[in-house]
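Internal ticket - ligand job 246, glutamine:
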Amino acid sequence: MKLNVCWMYHDIMDLYGDKGNMMVLEKRCKDRGIDFLLDTCTIGEEKDLSTYDLLFIGGGADKEQHMLIDDLLSRKDNIKKAMDSNTFILLICGGYQLFGQYYIDADNNKIDCLKFFDYYTENCEDKKRCIGNIAINCKLEDQEFMVIGFENHGGQTQNVKHPFGQVLAGHGNNFEEKTEGFYNGQVLGTYMHGPLLPKNPKVADFIIYKSIQKHNPEFQLSDLLPLDDSLENKAKNQMLQRLQVL
Ligand code: GLN
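stdout (structure tokens):
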């Protein structure tokens, strides 16, 4: 069994420890005897993205989003091919925004995005930002559980038809709606840095399972050997208590 991952724009999209997401996937795969192959793809590099089980893009400031957008748009057909062939996609913050319709940055510059989904992101009038720890309630297939993270974004994402979760503390997609991220069964976009997966082993395992399914359609979440997550769960409960959610 193996997991073949491509971290796109690894050299510029890596905020608040997003690379920890890759480290955690590697550790949780290795502990179970699953080969973990991590490749990267940056601006100008030729790669067939549809060959991977999982694509990952981390967060980035407006500057980095402008730097990569032409390259990302040039890969639109290839990313569509990846989606059509069941590659799972994990997008954090700046990466998440770029899969929607458009992003208007803090200086009112518009980035036309990939337009795979209906959501769009605009800045906040007085340059306010959503910053701080966040807790949400999410439902991934038949599991319902809380997820914690850290957010820092000016972008206000609207018109999300399928949010990743409901906000219990913090902001999420925007200041008003109390929804967080996007999840459609194959693409998971979220504002949660922190990083997401070390803080939330259940999300990490869910992504491993969905990604493995690309080449092993029979594979189930219950096929993943259980690991000892007691420290992670203790840290998570501490944060949930601090946020007065528990
Ligand atoms: N530049 C984007 C914003 O401020 C994304 C920031 C991020 O990835 N943390 O909304």
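Auto-summary: The mean pLDDT is 98. The longest helix spans residues 62-74.
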